[in-house]
Design a protein that fits this description.
Keywords: Cytoplasm, Repeat, TPR repeat. Pfam families: TPR_11, TPR_19. The protein has 309 residues and is mainly alpha-helical. It has 15 helices and no strands. The radius of gyration is 22 Å and the shape is globular. The model is unreliable at 1-6 and 164-184 (pLDDT under 50).
């Protein structure tokens, strides 16, 4: 490390670390972020979140450098200083996944989705962990999970406001997070009301059997309020009706991110898998539904239909 680096402020070192990270010099970036951390810790007026971001940045470098254990340590420190930091959650999840600690990875991916339900990397990670855990523990794998933290709405709003202000490396994980993910701000009351009206218009179109038009209304509603699970399940019903099964599954996953016991999401996801003739996935989804609601007759009939395929 050149001697002149040591005289720089922590903000200058942070920027230097970011630039070094972008060029793929991850070992050097680790060294620079380490200096930045030391400099910031010397400051009398240091903000915990600033320090948390530095640890998260160094964690990204460790992850890229293949040192997953150190990545987890830095993410733990980052999340103590800056609770529910999405980037730290995603980086720790990727590290846990690489270490084959799939339950912990699943928890972090699901927690990140509570903060921003539009993170594709977290959805993909959740799906991978679901598959891995099902293969390892069978259909009862959810019973072995640690509790998933509930992210308060006040925290979601605060993080959404800060999302665009944090200067950090763009790549969160070696394969899953190649693009920069940003959190959308929580919808305001005006948007929520508009979204509700659009959803009701979609519901009216469904009753008329006009599913494609209903999809358009639900999509408009979700642009205004992407935090309403029933809009996703309603649109999923329409996607199943027009045989856009993969779109239906994606909408059900969105709803299940917000409510893992959502009966409609589990049922329509099962319908979509049946439409795709993925019998195993259909059975797994139905069984999840029946664990939530054991006497659901529609689910039982769907399971019988799947067995006939």
């Amino acid at each position: 490390m050149p001697q002149k680096q040591k005289s720089k402020s922590w903000t200058e070192l942070k920027q230097a670390g970011n630039e070094t990270f972008k060029t793929g010099q991850y070992g050097e970036a680790i060294n620079i972020y380490s200096l930045a951390i030391k400099e910031l810790e010397k400051c009398n007026k240091k903000e915990p979140e600033d320090l948390g971001i530095l640890y998260s940045n160094r964690a990204a470098s460790y992850l890229k450098d293949g040192n997953c254990a150190e990545c987890v340590k830095d993410c733990n420190m980052s999340l103590e200083l800056f609770p529910y930091n999405v980037k730290s959650l995603l980086r720790r999840a990727a590290a846990y996944e690489a270490l084959e600690r799939y339950r912990l990875a699943y928890i972090d991916y699901k927690t990140a989705l509570q903060i921003d339900c539009n993170i594709a990397a977290a959805h993909d990670g959740t799906n991978r962990m679901t598959k891995a855990l099902t293969e390892a523990d069978g259909l009862s794998w959810r019973e072995k999970l640690p509790p998933i933290p509930t992210v308060p709405m006040s925290v979601r709003e605060k993080l959404a406001q800060k999302a665009t202000a944090n200067a950090a490396p763009r790549t969160a994980a070696p394969t899953q997070n190649g693009t920069n993910q940003t959190s959308k701000p929580a919808p305001n009351d005006k948007d929520v009301k508009k979204a509700q009206l659009l959803k009701e218009e979609g519901n009216a179109l469904v009753k008329k059997g006009e599913h494609k038009k209903a999809i358009e209304k639900y999509s408009q509603s979700l642009k205004l309020n992407p935090t309403e699970p029933t809009t996703y399940t309603n649109r999923a019903l329409c996607y199943v009706s027009v045989k856009q099964y993969r779109d239906a599954i994606r909408d059900c996953d969105e709803a299940l991110t917000m409510d893992g016991r959502n009966i409609k999401a589990l049922y329509r996801k099962s319908q979509a898998y049946l439409g795709l003739k993925d019998i195993r996935a259909c059975e797994e989804s139905v069984n999840m539904l029946l664990r939530v609601e054991p006497n659901n007759c529609a689910a039982m009939k769907l399971l019988e239909e799947a067995h006939k395929k």
